[in-house]
Amino acid sequence: MKYFIITGTSRGIGASLAKKLLDENHHIFCISRSNNQELISISKERDNKLSYYQFDLYNINKIDLLFEDIFKAIKNDSEIESIYLINNAGVLSPLTPCEENKTEDILRNVNINLIAPMVITSNFIKHTNILNLDKRIMNISSGSAKYLLPSQSSYSTSKAGLDSFSKSISIEQMNKPFPVKII
Fold it and tell me: Which of 30, 46, 74, 150 could form a disulfide with 9 if both were Cys (CB 3.0 to 4.6 A apart)?
């Protein structure tokens, strides 16, 4: 069984990825603020394995518990072939010049776009570090991390941070006995 953990599956890229990955040999763990009923219905129709976690990644202090629940389900499987994590969830706002940004909007952006993926990545590696199988993390970034636009300072900065974080973890994993590949 191949396992996929995908954040931001309520719509957009995350929903499309989850839908594309529905397969009898896959178990998909979806994480988003609201459930994607279409995705849930399709998985039931096809009798595919899909577990949905309605969770707001702004609550970074509760991510550890979320991943304990997810990995309890995964570790009960004696035939794990691979485990993949796709950090896709993201927020664009605030879309105003820096001096007009509200503190809570900046915090929400950085928590969801950067800190949550960092905590999720840490949990993923912690829960899989002794498993000798294919393990991969894909962090969805943005061209805005390199090609800056006005009124997107929080978004561009958080995505640039995610790029840097991904590169750092990739270097860390090079010398591990059972490394996680990260892009």
Answer: 30
CA 67 to chain centroid, in Å, comes to 11
Residue 67 pLDDT: 98
Cis before 117? omega within 30: no
Cβ partners under 8 Å of residue 35, min gap 6? 10, 52, 54
**What residues does 49 pair with on adjacent strands?**
27
Contact criterion met (CB below 8 Å) for 33 and 7? no
Q: Mean of the pLDDT values across residues 12-23?
A: 96
For the entire predicted model, the pTM comes to 0.95
Q: Is 53 noted as a catalytic residue in this protein?
A: no
Phi, psi of 122 (to 5 degrees): -60, -45
User: Can you give the length of the chain in residues?
Assistant: 183
- Give ∠ CA 131-167-1 in degrees, rounded to 5: 30
CA gap 88, 117 in Å, rounded: 9
